[in-house]
Amino acid sequence: MQNAPPVVILNEPQLAENIGAVARVMANFGLAELRLVRPRDGWPQERAWASASGADWPLDGAKVYQRLEAAVADLRLVYATTARPRETQLPVLTPREATAELHAAVARGHRVGLLFGGERAGLETGDIALCHGIVTIPVDERFRSLNLAQAVALNAYEWRMGVADRPREAFALNIDEPADMETVVGLYEQLESELDDAGFFHPPEKRPSMVRNLRVALGRARLTDQEVRTWRGVVTALSKGRGRVLEKLARQKAAAKNETKG
Amino acid sequence: MQNAPPVVILNEPQLAENIGAVARVMANFGLAELRLVRPRDGWPQERAWASASGADWPLDGAKVYQRLEAAVADLRLVYATTARPRETQLPVLTPREATAELHAAVARGHRVGLLFGGERAGLETGDIALCHGIVTIPVDERFRSLNLAQAVALNAYEWRMGVADRPREAFALNIDEPADMETVVGLYEQLESELDDAGFFHPPEKRPSMVRNLRVALGRARLTDQEVRTWRGVVTALSKGRGRVLEKLARQKAAAKNETKG
Lengths: 262, 262
Prior knowledge:
Shape of chain A: elongated
Number of helices of chain A: 11
Oligomer: homodimer
Helix content of chain A: 40-55%
CATH class of the largest domain in chain A: Alpha Beta
């Protein structure tokens, strides 16, 4: 497979539910290939599929190995994730640094992998010795116990961030074009005119600074054309009651006249 | 609390097991304060503690709210995490970008929060309208269904990565502190109440979406305390001005009555 994302290797995983949860986060972040070394309860396990929430394909394609050496045989760069610092003379990386290295290797056409230990025992130093570096997730010293699927998720997320970094499509603002200044100033002037009528600007010599402050605050919102229309409606409704209240009163007035006439 | 990490707010969470899993990842990455808005099965729930693997303190200290507005009242910057892009006119950020903004706000002494929706329904647009931006985790289009605790974990991890990265003063704005959400929501509710009186929201079934759009636009302005006071004055002046017109009409009406009597 050309430019394949990292293979996920679980060494002696225990609970099938956790294997399913790993498959789910792999699917979330575009990883697909799962390898299991000596799963405690054998393989396949129905509960894995049940906890994958529909992310079946990493489970359907999972391969089982008796030896970690065989599981990493075709890979050229493998990082081992572990919560504890080790005495092994291997570089220690964050998930971000590790996935950057993995991206670089994949770009050169290499097959790469991420190795995770079982829930209870984690990885032994002998397993880590097969790898090219140690990934340490920066957990709080006071609570280091990270769920297996969470550890996979954080690495898979960082891998995905590296993919998403290319055209940076995801970072576009979700905001339409702001209205042009003529449109915005139209709203300002309507508002200020109504506030003049309402006697808002007092004392009068403070009017210019009060107007500035209103404009600055509203300007920071960078209103769109549609929003300017809405806010013009707001100002009209607040100051005129959309005319309807006035019409109602006028009707009452006319009715009262007719009553007194009748 | 000085320089507190983000508060985690779960809106209508369903499974106690997931709340426990959220507490666990919060503890992993140094977050501590958990708020629950209308948890489906009530609170406390023993199963939450069972699934937290010993990360009891976010659960022990969790507060329950009936309204999201109350749960965010003391916060000054809140991001909503959602998998689906929205039509709301709010900036869309990655967890990395969002936590950089959160770090900058916390460095200025602000209380900040991360909002997550329930397992099934996620967040409604009305909930998102209370927030200052949308966090979208860059999941694969083919499998977007991200577990709640995973979504919290990725944001908490990015927060933690940023702790190591500091200090970063890059986001200093030339504006005063934004008001807290209680203050801002007070302005929203005054405005909406006056608009109700003015007959602005019609047809009535459109009221929720109209309210959302008003809140989103005004929320983008990040009003300061002083500005909120000013804008409350604006709303009062405009609507009282309308009252004065009505009083004047009422006086004319009374005068007309007297005329017909006399």
